[in-house]
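SEVERITY: medium
COMPONENT: batch folding queue
REPORTER: lab tech (J.R.)

DESCRIPTION
The queue accepted two submissions in a row. Attaching both inputs and their returned structure tokens so the on-call engineer can compare them side by side.

ATTACHMENT 1
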Amino acid sequence: MEKTLRVAVALWPGLDQQVLEPATRARLAEAVEVLQPLPVDLATQPDEVLADVDVLLAGWGCPALDGPLLDRLPGLKLLAYAAGSVKATVTDELWRRDVAVSSAAAANAVPVAELTFAAVVMIAKDVFRIRDSFRASRGALPVEGHGPAGPVGTRGLKVGVVGASRIGRLVVERLRTLDCSIAVSDPFLTADDAAAMGAHLVELDELCRWADVVTLHAPAVPATHHMIDSGRLALMHDGAWVVNTARGSLVDTAALESECASGRLCAFIDTPDPEPLPEQSLLWDLPNVVLTPHIAGSLGTEIARMGELAVDEVLRFAAGAPLHHRVRHSDLEHIA
């Protein structure tokens, strides 16, 4: 009789309740043996317990799977990661041991795209400035259809999407519900691929010159460090917005702060660099800057979506079926 897979759930204590809802947990337990108690502290488990683990269903709170830890997990065959980026957990040693890796980044991409789309719509409707003037005047000032950057509204808005990543594509998909123009810049994308997405392909400098809103969805890799620097910010027209729900390192913070402090550009920043920003940063108090504390990714009820995806992957693996969300070592240079 074929051995039942033994699964260890490695997450921060309490997070397992959000990641694995009762129905998802029951589905997992029906197909595999789940190591108890839940979640497992890998550092304190006896070697003989970890020796029989076939699958790690992990996420936030799981340590990096380095050589010493993997020596205690000699039977590990799959890391099913119930979170976004696997980069903090996978190691060269993990790849050398040919452990399969799956990521729930596709599930985490959904709320990021939703928040980005909502931010673009609110920017187009001038919601943030109108909110402040409405509050300050106690409703005495009329709302007009023309703001500092021009006419208010989504019709005719020009949105530049930097990165045809999973999230970038979801953002484009949602933007297509608006009567707006969409450009995308990505060195790995062809013009035909961009057209199939519903966008036109342009170089990054051209995108910065053209767009009313530049929204960033590229991975944090050496080639993208400060890709939005002082030169590219200078290309953007007065009143344009930078939206960053990706990685803070994509933007030169000092250059962005200078442009926003002058009043020339505006920004919606969920992922600053550094994170959090220093208390003295001007970005905290500028009226043309919206700062949120890295909330674009999965929060609250959204976290369970990642658990569902990870369990689906474990069940596919148990059945000998191909993984749908496999990550390979070569993918790391292209993902967040």
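ATTACHMENT 2
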Amino acid sequence: MTEAHDTIGRMLDGTRTIAVVGLSPSPNRPSNGVAAYLQRQGFRVIPVNPNVDPDEILGERAYPDLASVPEPIDLVNIFRRSEFIGPVVAQAIEIGAKYVWMQDGVIDDDAAEVARSAGLLVVMNDCIFRQHRSRSIA
């Protein structure tokens, strides 16, 4: 078993509440499909998107940022462009999240190092849906 595989397993096993940063209300967007899948798997998904008007996405209240979420978050799943990752990671650390997951194509080595230095486990440039599904059918 690789270190990355072990980290992913620890993250998924230790997670109940996932804040999805950049969650789109559009069912045609990858963030929406991934979040809907996570809900079906029993995770509590909290939408976080500063650019969204609806009060709810996927039946859950949406928040403009992580600091506005009134409950503990285990994992911060990020669907934002790489240049926006630093502030999201800083907020993840501030709120006491345990894990940061940057989706496919989302890469920020500096932010990942900041998160790791603060004690968070990090996955970068990978899909939580694909990883969870592969573990579920293995």
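NOTES FROM REPORTER
The helical segments are 3-13, 30-40, 85-95, 109-117, 128-137.
No errors were logged for either attachment.
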